[in-house]
Design goal:
By secondary structure, the protein is mainly α. Helix content is 60%, strand content 3%. The protein has one domain. A 3-stranded mixed sheet has the order 1-2-3. It starts with a helix and ends in an 11-residue tail after the last helix.
Length: 361
Protein backbone atom coordinates (compact mmCIF):
# COMPACT_ATOMS: atom_id res chain seq x y z
CA UNK A 1 0.00 0.00 0.00
CA UNK A 2 1.40 3.39 -0.98
CA UNK A 3 2.15 6.15 1.48
CA UNK A 4 -0.57 8.31 -0.07
CA UNK A 5 -3.26 5.68 0.50
CA UNK A 6 -2.24 5.49 4.14
CA UNK A 7 -2.60 9.24 4.39
CA UNK A 8 -6.02 9.23 2.76
CA UNK A 9 -7.34 6.54 5.08
CA UNK A 10 -6.72 8.89 8.00
CA UNK A 11 -8.63 11.76 6.39
CA UNK A 12 -12.43 11.79 6.63
CA UNK A 13 -13.01 14.16 3.71
CA UNK A 14 -11.14 15.80 0.87
CA UNK A 15 -11.43 19.10 2.72
CA UNK A 16 -9.59 17.51 5.66
CA UNK A 17 -6.91 16.19 3.33
CA UNK A 18 -6.30 19.65 1.86
CA UNK A 19 -6.41 21.53 5.14
CA UNK A 20 -3.25 23.44 6.08
CA UNK A 21 -1.72 22.67 9.49
CA UNK A 22 -2.68 25.21 12.16
CA UNK A 23 0.83 26.65 12.44
CA UNK A 24 1.19 27.25 8.68
CA UNK A 25 -0.38 30.57 7.73
CA UNK A 26 0.37 30.37 4.04
CA UNK A 27 1.81 28.20 1.33
CA UNK A 28 2.98 29.00 -2.19
CA UNK A 29 2.77 26.25 -4.77
CA UNK A 30 5.84 27.04 -6.85
CA UNK A 31 4.52 25.14 -9.86
CA UNK A 32 1.35 27.18 -10.33
CA UNK A 33 2.03 30.33 -8.32
CA UNK A 34 -1.14 29.57 -6.37
CA UNK A 35 -1.01 31.14 -2.92
CA UNK A 36 -2.95 29.22 -0.29
CA UNK A 37 -4.14 31.14 2.76
CA UNK A 38 -5.01 29.40 6.01
CA UNK A 39 -8.33 31.10 6.55
CA UNK A 40 -11.66 31.05 4.80
CA UNK A 41 -12.79 33.54 2.17
CA UNK A 42 -15.38 35.27 4.36
CA UNK A 43 -12.99 35.85 7.25
CA UNK A 44 -10.31 37.24 4.94
CA UNK A 45 -12.64 39.84 3.43
CA UNK A 46 -14.69 40.56 6.56
CA UNK A 47 -13.33 43.71 8.18
CA UNK A 48 -14.91 42.91 11.55
CA UNK A 49 -13.27 39.47 11.76
CA UNK A 50 -10.06 40.21 9.87
CA UNK A 51 -8.43 42.85 12.06
CA UNK A 52 -5.66 43.34 14.58
CA UNK A 53 -3.11 40.55 14.88
CA UNK A 54 -4.98 38.25 12.50
CA UNK A 55 -4.99 40.85 9.73
CA UNK A 56 -1.28 41.51 10.24
CA UNK A 57 -0.44 37.80 10.09
CA UNK A 58 -2.47 37.27 6.92
CA UNK A 59 -0.96 40.33 5.23
CA UNK A 60 2.58 39.24 6.14
CA UNK A 61 1.82 35.79 4.80
CA UNK A 62 0.71 37.18 1.44
CA UNK A 63 3.70 39.51 1.20
CA UNK A 64 6.13 36.72 2.05
CA UNK A 65 4.75 34.08 -0.30
CA UNK A 66 4.02 36.43 -3.20
CA UNK A 67 7.59 37.72 -2.93
CA UNK A 68 8.80 34.15 -3.42
CA UNK A 69 6.94 34.11 -6.71
CA UNK A 70 8.68 37.34 -7.68
CA UNK A 71 12.02 35.70 -6.83
CA UNK A 72 11.14 32.73 -9.04
CA UNK A 73 10.07 34.86 -11.99
CA UNK A 74 13.10 37.18 -11.86
CA UNK A 75 16.22 35.17 -10.91
CA UNK A 76 18.03 32.68 -13.10
CA UNK A 77 18.64 30.23 -10.27
CA UNK A 78 15.02 29.83 -9.18
CA UNK A 79 13.53 30.32 -12.64
CA UNK A 80 15.54 27.43 -14.08
CA UNK A 81 15.05 25.20 -11.05
CA UNK A 82 11.28 25.64 -10.92
CA UNK A 83 10.84 25.50 -14.71
CA UNK A 84 12.56 22.11 -14.89
CA UNK A 85 10.89 20.58 -11.85
CA UNK A 86 7.42 21.90 -12.70
CA UNK A 87 7.72 20.46 -16.21
CA UNK A 88 8.18 17.00 -14.68
CA UNK A 89 5.51 17.61 -12.08
CA UNK A 90 2.83 18.75 -14.52
CA UNK A 91 3.62 15.87 -16.85
CA UNK A 92 2.95 13.39 -14.04
CA UNK A 93 -0.24 15.19 -12.96
CA UNK A 94 -1.61 15.34 -16.51
CA UNK A 95 -0.95 11.63 -17.03
CA UNK A 96 -2.90 10.85 -13.87
CA UNK A 97 -5.67 13.21 -14.93
CA UNK A 98 -6.15 11.35 -18.19
CA UNK A 99 -6.89 8.19 -16.21
CA UNK A 100 -9.17 9.90 -13.69
CA UNK A 101 -11.27 12.24 -15.82
CA UNK A 102 -13.28 9.56 -17.60
CA UNK A 103 -14.22 7.69 -14.46
CA UNK A 104 -15.42 10.42 -12.10
CA UNK A 105 -17.96 13.21 -12.33
CA UNK A 106 -16.94 15.68 -9.62
CA UNK A 107 -13.78 17.53 -8.80
CA UNK A 108 -13.76 16.14 -5.27
CA UNK A 109 -13.95 12.57 -6.53
CA UNK A 110 -11.38 13.29 -9.20
CA UNK A 111 -8.95 14.62 -6.61
CA UNK A 112 -9.34 11.57 -4.40
CA UNK A 113 -8.89 9.33 -7.44
CA UNK A 114 -5.68 11.17 -8.25
CA UNK A 115 -4.30 10.76 -4.73
CA UNK A 116 -4.92 7.01 -4.90
CA UNK A 117 -3.08 6.68 -8.20
CA UNK A 118 0.25 4.85 -7.92
CA UNK A 119 1.95 7.53 -10.06
CA UNK A 120 1.46 10.05 -7.26
CA UNK A 121 4.65 8.73 -5.65
CA UNK A 122 6.55 10.18 -8.60
CA UNK A 123 5.47 13.64 -7.47
CA UNK A 124 7.20 13.12 -4.15
CA UNK A 125 10.41 12.06 -5.85
CA UNK A 126 10.22 15.09 -8.13
CA UNK A 127 9.76 17.58 -5.29
CA UNK A 128 12.70 15.99 -3.46
CA UNK A 129 14.89 17.82 -5.97
CA UNK A 130 14.21 21.01 -4.05
CA UNK A 131 16.60 19.67 -1.41
CA UNK A 132 19.37 21.29 -3.49
CA UNK A 133 18.26 24.45 -1.72
CA UNK A 134 19.89 23.14 1.45
CA UNK A 135 23.47 22.69 0.21
CA UNK A 136 25.77 24.59 2.58
CA UNK A 137 28.72 26.94 2.12
CA UNK A 138 31.76 27.06 4.38
CA UNK A 139 29.89 29.71 6.39
CA UNK A 140 27.00 27.31 6.90
CA UNK A 141 24.85 29.42 4.55
CA UNK A 142 22.36 27.71 2.23
CA UNK A 143 20.46 28.87 -0.84
CA UNK A 144 17.26 28.46 1.17
CA UNK A 145 18.67 30.87 3.78
CA UNK A 146 19.15 33.51 1.09
CA UNK A 147 15.70 32.98 -0.40
CA UNK A 148 13.87 32.95 2.94
CA UNK A 149 15.85 35.73 4.61
CA UNK A 150 15.15 37.97 1.63
CA UNK A 151 11.40 37.20 1.72
CA UNK A 152 11.28 37.77 5.48
CA UNK A 153 13.10 41.09 5.14
CA UNK A 154 10.57 42.07 2.50
CA UNK A 155 7.48 41.14 4.54
CA UNK A 156 8.76 43.15 7.48
CA UNK A 157 9.60 46.10 5.22
CA UNK A 158 5.98 46.08 4.07
CA UNK A 159 4.46 45.97 7.56
CA UNK A 160 7.01 47.70 9.81
CA UNK A 161 8.56 51.14 9.60
CA UNK A 162 12.18 49.97 9.87
CA UNK A 163 14.39 53.00 10.48
CA UNK A 164 17.63 51.47 11.83
CA UNK A 165 19.59 48.24 11.97
CA UNK A 166 18.96 47.67 15.68
CA UNK A 167 15.23 47.66 15.09
CA UNK A 168 15.46 44.97 12.41
CA UNK A 169 17.90 42.84 14.41
CA UNK A 170 15.36 42.93 17.23
CA UNK A 171 12.63 41.73 14.85
CA UNK A 172 14.88 38.85 13.79
CA UNK A 173 14.94 37.59 17.36
CA UNK A 174 11.30 36.57 16.82
CA UNK A 175 11.80 35.04 13.37
CA UNK A 176 10.10 31.62 13.06
CA UNK A 177 13.34 29.80 12.23
CA UNK A 178 17.01 30.47 11.52
CA UNK A 179 16.59 30.41 7.73
CA UNK A 180 14.56 33.64 7.99
CA UNK A 181 17.47 35.50 9.57
CA UNK A 182 20.67 33.62 8.67
CA UNK A 183 21.58 35.42 5.42
CA UNK A 184 20.87 38.87 6.85
CA UNK A 185 23.05 38.16 9.89
CA UNK A 186 25.89 37.05 7.59
CA UNK A 187 25.51 40.27 5.58
CA UNK A 188 25.39 42.36 8.75
CA UNK A 189 28.56 40.74 10.04
CA UNK A 190 30.38 41.67 6.82
CA UNK A 191 28.98 45.09 5.93
CA UNK A 192 27.49 46.36 9.19
CA UNK A 193 24.59 48.81 9.20
CA UNK A 194 24.54 49.19 5.42
CA UNK A 195 23.03 45.68 5.26
CA UNK A 196 19.72 47.46 5.76
CA UNK A 197 20.27 49.30 2.46
CA UNK A 198 21.94 46.67 0.29
CA UNK A 199 20.54 43.34 1.51
CA UNK A 200 17.84 42.89 -1.13
CA UNK A 201 20.28 43.74 -3.92
CA UNK A 202 22.80 41.21 -2.60
CA UNK A 203 20.18 38.46 -2.40
CA UNK A 204 18.87 39.13 -5.90
CA UNK A 205 22.33 39.21 -7.47
CA UNK A 206 23.36 36.03 -5.63
CA UNK A 207 20.40 34.21 -7.17
CA UNK A 208 21.75 34.97 -10.63
CA UNK A 209 24.46 32.36 -10.04
CA UNK A 210 24.42 28.57 -10.06
CA UNK A 211 25.58 28.44 -6.43
CA UNK A 212 24.09 31.55 -4.75
CA UNK A 213 25.49 30.68 -1.31
CA UNK A 214 29.06 30.82 -2.69
CA UNK A 215 28.65 34.27 -4.23
CA UNK A 216 26.67 35.87 -1.40
CA UNK A 217 29.62 36.74 0.91
CA UNK A 218 31.68 37.97 -2.06
CA UNK A 219 28.88 40.34 -3.04
CA UNK A 220 28.68 41.51 0.57
CA UNK A 221 32.33 42.56 0.35
CA UNK A 222 31.62 44.43 -2.90
CA UNK A 223 28.73 46.37 -1.37
CA UNK A 224 30.80 47.05 1.74
CA UNK A 225 33.14 49.10 -0.43
CA UNK A 226 30.23 51.19 -1.71
CA UNK A 227 29.84 52.92 1.68
CA UNK A 228 26.16 53.82 1.53
CA UNK A 229 26.47 55.39 -1.93
CA UNK A 230 23.94 54.72 -4.72
CA UNK A 231 25.37 52.23 -7.20
CA UNK A 232 25.02 52.70 -10.93
CA UNK A 233 23.80 49.64 -12.78
CA UNK A 234 26.85 49.55 -15.06
CA UNK A 235 29.02 49.06 -11.94
CA UNK A 236 26.83 46.12 -10.96
CA UNK A 237 27.24 44.61 -14.41
CA UNK A 238 31.03 45.01 -14.20
CA UNK A 239 31.03 43.16 -10.88
CA UNK A 240 28.86 40.35 -12.28
CA UNK A 241 31.21 39.94 -15.23
CA UNK A 242 34.15 39.73 -12.82
CA UNK A 243 32.41 37.17 -10.61
CA UNK A 244 31.34 35.07 -13.59
CA UNK A 245 35.01 34.27 -14.22
CA UNK A 246 35.14 32.41 -10.90
CA UNK A 247 31.55 31.29 -10.35
CA UNK A 248 29.09 29.70 -12.82
CA UNK A 249 26.73 32.47 -13.92
CA UNK A 250 23.10 31.98 -14.94
CA UNK A 251 21.82 35.54 -15.21
CA UNK A 252 18.31 36.82 -14.77
CA UNK A 253 15.18 34.91 -15.75
CA UNK A 254 15.36 36.71 -19.10
CA UNK A 255 18.66 35.03 -19.95
CA UNK A 256 17.56 31.61 -18.70
CA UNK A 257 14.33 31.90 -20.67
CA UNK A 258 16.33 32.54 -23.84
CA UNK A 259 18.32 29.37 -23.14
CA UNK A 260 15.00 27.52 -22.95
CA UNK A 261 14.26 29.06 -26.37
CA UNK A 262 11.00 30.26 -24.78
CA UNK A 263 10.13 26.61 -24.19
CA UNK A 264 8.35 27.20 -20.89
CA UNK A 265 6.01 24.23 -20.69
CA UNK A 266 4.22 25.36 -17.54
CA UNK A 267 1.17 27.45 -18.59
CA UNK A 268 0.94 29.20 -15.22
CA UNK A 269 4.65 29.97 -15.19
CA UNK A 270 4.71 31.25 -18.77
CA UNK A 271 1.73 33.52 -18.31
CA UNK A 272 3.10 35.10 -15.12
CA UNK A 273 6.56 35.47 -16.63
CA UNK A 274 5.21 37.34 -19.64
CA UNK A 275 3.22 39.62 -17.35
CA UNK A 276 6.36 40.34 -15.31
CA UNK A 277 8.36 41.22 -18.44
CA UNK A 278 5.68 43.72 -19.49
CA UNK A 279 5.46 45.14 -15.96
CA UNK A 280 9.22 45.66 -15.63
CA UNK A 281 9.45 47.18 -19.11
CA UNK A 282 6.71 49.68 -18.28
CA UNK A 283 7.59 50.56 -14.70
CA UNK A 284 11.34 49.93 -14.39
CA UNK A 285 12.76 50.64 -17.86
CA UNK A 286 13.26 46.92 -18.38
CA UNK A 287 15.61 46.58 -15.37
CA UNK A 288 14.93 43.67 -13.01
CA UNK A 289 17.68 44.99 -10.75
CA UNK A 290 15.76 48.24 -10.17
CA UNK A 291 12.68 46.23 -9.23
CA UNK A 292 14.46 43.76 -6.95
CA UNK A 293 16.72 46.24 -5.16
CA UNK A 294 13.63 48.02 -3.75
CA UNK A 295 10.69 45.68 -4.43
CA UNK A 296 8.41 47.23 -1.81
CA UNK A 297 7.96 50.43 -3.86
CA UNK A 298 5.52 48.99 -6.42
CA UNK A 299 4.82 45.56 -5.00
CA UNK A 300 1.07 46.09 -4.75
CA UNK A 301 0.96 46.65 -8.51
CA UNK A 302 2.99 43.49 -9.11
CA UNK A 303 0.74 41.47 -6.82
CA UNK A 304 -2.51 42.66 -8.40
CA UNK A 305 -1.34 42.06 -11.95
CA UNK A 306 0.74 38.90 -11.70
CA UNK A 307 -0.18 36.89 -8.57
CA UNK A 308 -3.66 36.02 -9.74
CA UNK A 309 -4.46 32.78 -7.94
CA UNK A 310 -5.40 33.04 -4.28
CA UNK A 311 -6.86 29.94 -2.61
CA UNK A 312 -8.57 29.91 0.76
CA UNK A 313 -9.68 26.96 2.84
CA UNK A 314 -11.16 24.06 0.82
CA UNK A 315 -14.82 24.76 1.56
CA UNK A 316 -14.49 27.96 -0.46
CA UNK A 317 -12.25 26.45 -3.12
CA UNK A 318 -14.89 24.04 -4.31
CA UNK A 319 -17.70 26.57 -4.22
CA UNK A 320 -15.64 28.76 -6.55
CA UNK A 321 -14.67 26.17 -9.13
CA UNK A 322 -17.88 24.12 -9.12
CA UNK A 323 -18.30 20.40 -9.62
CA UNK A 324 -18.76 20.19 -13.37
CA UNK A 325 -16.96 17.41 -15.24
CA UNK A 326 -13.89 18.54 -17.15
CA UNK A 327 -13.13 17.43 -20.69
CA UNK A 328 -9.95 15.50 -21.37
CA UNK A 329 -8.74 17.93 -24.03
CA UNK A 330 -8.77 21.02 -21.81
CA UNK A 331 -8.26 20.88 -18.06
CA UNK A 332 -9.44 23.98 -16.28
CA UNK A 333 -6.60 26.12 -14.85
CA UNK A 334 -8.15 26.24 -11.42
CA UNK A 335 -8.64 22.48 -11.37
CA UNK A 336 -4.99 21.93 -12.23
CA UNK A 337 -4.06 24.38 -9.48
CA UNK A 338 -5.98 22.30 -6.95
CA UNK A 339 -4.46 19.10 -8.31
CA UNK A 340 -0.90 20.30 -7.76
CA UNK A 341 -1.86 20.88 -4.14
CA UNK A 342 -1.51 17.12 -3.78
CA UNK A 343 2.15 17.81 -3.14
CA UNK A 344 1.17 19.39 0.13
CA UNK A 345 0.36 15.90 1.37
CA UNK A 346 4.10 15.34 1.33
CA UNK A 347 5.17 18.80 2.51
CA UNK A 348 3.12 18.20 5.67
CA UNK A 349 5.27 15.21 6.54
CA UNK A 350 8.86 15.86 5.55
CA UNK A 351 8.96 19.59 4.69
CA UNK A 352 11.05 19.10 1.55
CA UNK A 353 8.74 21.40 -0.36
CA UNK A 354 9.69 24.92 -1.33
CA UNK A 355 8.23 27.28 1.21
CA UNK A 356 6.46 27.50 4.55
CA UNK A 357 5.73 30.57 6.61
CA UNK A 358 5.31 29.80 10.30
CA UNK A 359 4.51 32.88 12.30
CA UNK A 360 4.53 33.07 16.09
CA UNK A 361 1.35 34.50 17.57
Amino acid sequence: MSRTKNLLSKEKTLEDALKLPENVWGFLDWTTGALRINTDYNTFFNEDQNKGKLKLLLNETIYHEAFHYLQILSTGYLFGLVANISKEELSIVCNILKEALDSKNSIQDLYIELLKNEQIEQLRLTTKKYMFLDDKSSLGLTNRDIIESSAYFFQKSMTENISNIEQYLKLLEFAPSKEYSKAFLVAHKIIGESALIYFQSICFLSLLFFHPYQVFPVLCEFFKSCKYQPIEENKIIEQLVLLSKSYPYLGTSYIVCEKFHNGIYNPFFKGSYNLLVDFVEKEYEGSLFKLMSQPQKRFTDFYKNICRILIFNPDNVFSLIGKEKKSTDKVDDMLLTIITGANFMYYKQDKTGPSFLKLKI
